[in-house]
């Protein structure tokens, strides 16, 4: 079973390895602490759900599926894109519906649907983490890059999981001990 400590340790190790490529060790340690601080400040005593993917990545994948779709190859597409046949059916149905909607006027239009927001965990990692990294001496451009990489890593490695941040996580994860693992 994957624990909160495992997730946090993995993310701290990742950010440490990314920062140490360009900055001294003291800044890499500070950056990994900043990650934990940002998560603890924003999610203290809350359950955090790690989303399964970015919306942008899904839209691109759906467009690729639509381009490959010929009407009779749902099984092949399911294998190619590692999805179920039902998911392929739903994707093609959704895209077909949006294409028809773009081509035809609606007789009874509904109010526009608000664009889906990013999951809060991704928003925190991409918007608040760069600020904390900059406070620790990481330049703005590199802190944005690292933050996006951390957000992508958590989705790639731990998608669909939930974990709990408590007040004592800052003391349980002793960074100097972890540095010996790098």
List the SSEs and their pairings.
Layout: H1 4-20, H2 25-43, E1 46-49, H3 55-68, H4 74-80, H5 85-103, H6 120-135, H7 140-158, E2 162-165, H8 169-172, H9 175-179
Antiparallel strand pairs: 1-2
Tell me the helix content. Answer: 55-70%
Question: Biggest β-sheet: count, sense, barrel?
Answer: 2 strands, antiparallel
Strand content: under 5%
Strand order of the largest sheet: 1-2
Total domain count? 2
Number of helices: 9
Q: Give the number of DSSP strands.
A: 2
User: What is the straight-line distance between the termini?
Assistant: 23 Å
Over all CA atoms, what is the radius of gyration?
Answer: 21 Å
Broad shape: elongated
Low-confidence stretches: 170-182
Structural class estimated from helices and strands = mainly alpha
N to C succession of SSEs: HHEHHHHHEHH
Mean pLDDT: 83
Produce a short descriptive summary.
This protein is mainly α.
Q: How would you sum up this structure, described in words?
A:
With 182 residues, the chain is mostly helical. The chain folds into two domains: 4-53 and 119-179, no CATH class; 55-103, Arc Repressor Mutant, subunit A (Orthogonal Bundle). 66% of the residues lie in helices and 4% in strands. The protein contains nine helices and two strands; from the N terminus they run H-H-E-H-H-H-H-H-E-H-H. It has a two-stranded antiparallel ribbon with strand order 1-2. Helix 2 (25-43) crosses helix 6 (120-135), helix 4 packs across helix 5 (85-103) and helix 6 packs antiparallel against helix 7 (140-158). The chain starts with a helix and ends with a helix. Mean pLDDT is 83; it is low at 170-182.
